[in-house]
Design brief:
It is a single chain. By secondary structure, the chain is of the alpha/beta class. It is built from 12 helices and 15 strands. The strands form 3 sheets. It has a 7-stranded mixed sheet. Strand 12, helix 10 and strand 13 form a beta-alpha-beta unit. It is globular. The N terminus is likely disordered.
């Protein structure tokens, strides 16, 4: 069922930023035995691919949790338009040159059965200076200039996944872009070259390529063995809508790759199972799982960790908004969490960090 903007705002109006800390976990903690009835395995055939490699370009959304929460509080709370929040860009000791903004972005290398390859850039971060450095480190800037990246998939409109779009467009202004239903006028204006001075946000390189808005509640094929699924997820800062990627890796099973997964990882896995052929075998997961991103913990989150093994996941990559405490809990529960190297300003090795890679297939 879709969530109206009015319903979204009404719901958020019931709480303040403290409520967000609860929502941060609740959005991912779906008690599937209560809220999601058993569903037959889907029959939508997305094809098959040979392998999927995911490089974590940046999983560091911001450098100081308290600072980003305070920015929202100072601006008026959860309902404030993210384009008019004066986000901290100076004076943050642990930030990038004082700027608290970082960003999330991942590069996905897809090998098809015929040996050909495709590259997908999932999200583009926030702070353009930070993203420029991360793109250079992983060679993404050169790939963009050489038109080696086939498409930019934006998981959702949030600042830490989208505001760094200039770092992409200055290298490849005509790259095809796919967004989920729910983008606001400001988001489309940013792509066209708008600036938002209060938010310290600009894009001096207007997008000139194709732009596709994908409807929610459907499986959208992208390449053989690869598709997107969009959700009407209601999120803070007025953001509405998120999409995730699903791959079918030959002889392995399905792989789910997310940005933040505000729709809830269980909801995402259930949607894959319900709609995609082969959904009875979820081989791997990678990305933000949106479980306790601010390192707060509630007993209900334990229900989610207990539910994950029922999907048969063999490889669990996570980072970004997952929370280090969540990773610790999952490891203690025996889940197959792939640990990282804690390089390039990622803080711990508990999960995949900046510059780390994971391969499925």
């Amino acid at each position: 069922m879709g969530v109206s903007r009015r319903g979204f705002l009404k719901g958020l109006a019931l709480g303040g930023t403290t409520g967000y800390l609860a929502m941060a976990g609740a959005s991912s903690t779906v008690l599937k035995d209560v809220f999601i009835p058993p569903a037959a395995v889907g029959d939508f055939d997305i094809g098959t691919c040979k392998s999927v490699k995911c490089t974590v370009v940046s999983e560091t959304s911001w450098f100081n949790n308290k600072r980003v929460v305070q920015d929202m509080k100072d601006a008026g709370g959860l309902l404030v338009n993210q384009y008019i929040i004066p986000w901290s860009n100076t004076g943050v000791k642990e930030g990038y040159n004082g700027n608290n903004a970082g960003g999330y972005s991942a590069l996905i290398d897809l090998e098809l059965l015929d040996g050909s390859k495709k590259k997908i850039l999932l999200d583009c971060g926030w702070n353009t200076e930070w993203m420029d450095e991360c793109f250079k480190r992983e060679g993404v800037d050169k790939m963009l200039k050489n038109k080696e990246i086939d498409v930019l998939v934006l998981s959702h409109e949030h600042f830490d996944h989208f505001f760094g779009v200039e770092s992409v467009l200055k290298n490849c202004p005509d790259i095809p872009i796919i967004v989920p239903k729910g983008f606001y006028k400001e988001g489309f204006d940013l792509l066209k070259g708008a600036s938002f001075p209060v938010a310290h946000l600009k894009n001096d390189y207007p997008h000139t390529g194709p732009l596709e808005v994908r409807e929610s509640g459907k499986v959208h094929p992208l390449f053989p063995g690869c598709a997107t699924i969009s959700f009407d997820s209601a999120i803070i800062c007025r953001v509405l809508g998120e999409q995730g990627l699903v791959f079918n890796v030959k002889d392995k099973g399905l792989v789910a790759i997310t940005g933040c997964c505000h729709m809830g990882i269980i909801s995402f896995l259930e949607e894959i199972k319900h709609r995609v052929k082969g959904g009875d075998k979820i081989y791997g997961i990678q990305g933000g799982l949106h479980i306790s991103p601010f390192e707060d913990w509630d007993p209900q989150y334990d229900d989610l960790i207990q539910a994950l093994p029922s999907y048969g996941v063999e490889v669990l990559g996570c980072n970004h908004c997952t929370g280090y405490l969540t990773a610790e809990k999952m490891i203690l529960a025996g889940l197959p969490v792939v640990q990282g190297t804690a390089r390039f300003r990622s803080k711990k090795k508990l999960f995949l960090g900046n510059g780390d890679q994971i391969v499925f297939g």
